[in-house]
# Entry
Amino acid sequence: MNKYILSSELEFRRNNIRQEMIKEGYEASLFSTNVNLFYLCGQIISGYLYIPSQGTPLLFIKRPVGIEGENIFYIRKPEQIKEILSKKGLKIPENIMLETSDLPYNDIMRLQKIFNPKQIGDATMLARKVRSIKTVYEIEQFRLSAKKHAEVYAKIPSLYKPGMTEIDLSIEIEYEMRKEGSIGVFRAFGQSMEIFVGSVLAGENAGAPSPFDFALGGQGIHPAIPIGGNNTRLKEGMAVMVDIGGTFTGYITDMTRTYSVGKLTEEAYKAHQVSIEIHDAVRNIAKPGVICEDIYNLGMEIVARHNLSDKFMGTSQQAKFIGHGIGIEINELPVLAPRFKTPLQENMVFALEPKFVLPEIGAVGIENSYVVTENGIETLTKFAEEIISLK
# Structure
């Protein structure tokens, strides 16, 4: 058994998957992606977790060797799953859920041929729905990550040296995070969503558009990964936005803070204060039952009132959300965006990131991670919210 997560926790999660699966009318689900295997097994394998509507889940492993326990079977190929089910006298499901939003076409076709079901459902979206409501254990993992995240951010002014570039400062921050126990894995959901561990953006680079669906882009240092710092040299009067993920526990805390090289313009401090105003307004209204789209609209109303719409969430390319769920992946459900009618539920965890981009100066604003409580929301990422001078 995995030493990090109790078997009762994993059983609770699997039962939640089973209940949602049954509601949708399916007899079984099959999981093979790293994120869902970690969530449901407490470890990552090369293989498959089979959850039937009735009976015990079965784990089919190709690698690594040496995992022992009840209902664990070593296989060389997925065709053996059906053979083992038959040998155990278990019914082959007539309808099954596969991770159709994650798996390559060839894998889906191969599994379809193996089971020959009458109907296939999307286990990816089912799992994302279940994972959006965090357990007590998961929320504690966020708390642990948030504490270390804040401790590293507090060190950033001492890491800065005149003449540094964005990448120079990012390297020093990443080094401190690894010393504090960061596992260094920044998982994101979606086709071709790639980033390293986060971004340090300054000056004009903060407004550089990116092909990736993150709040702000940045040019990056190579066309292979066109996002993040591009070695812009940090100069007097520049805002330096640090948005590096807190990857300490397998659950990612999302926190952005703005630093400055010397003094910024009055407009920069004003825009930064508007970001804090949006956070305060959301803290006042967010609770179970509040619709995600309404939170987005509230933020947009505040931005418009301050005549900052053309600088909000980018300039030439503007992100159309102000927040998102977080967890094992950085972009889980829910999404604080237009047309997202989902209500907040207790124990959802989300990041709120209203940011502004000012030409030549850079990006300002903050991002915090919040957990939805019975009567409101609780701030997880507790750290100074004002612009922090690096010198």
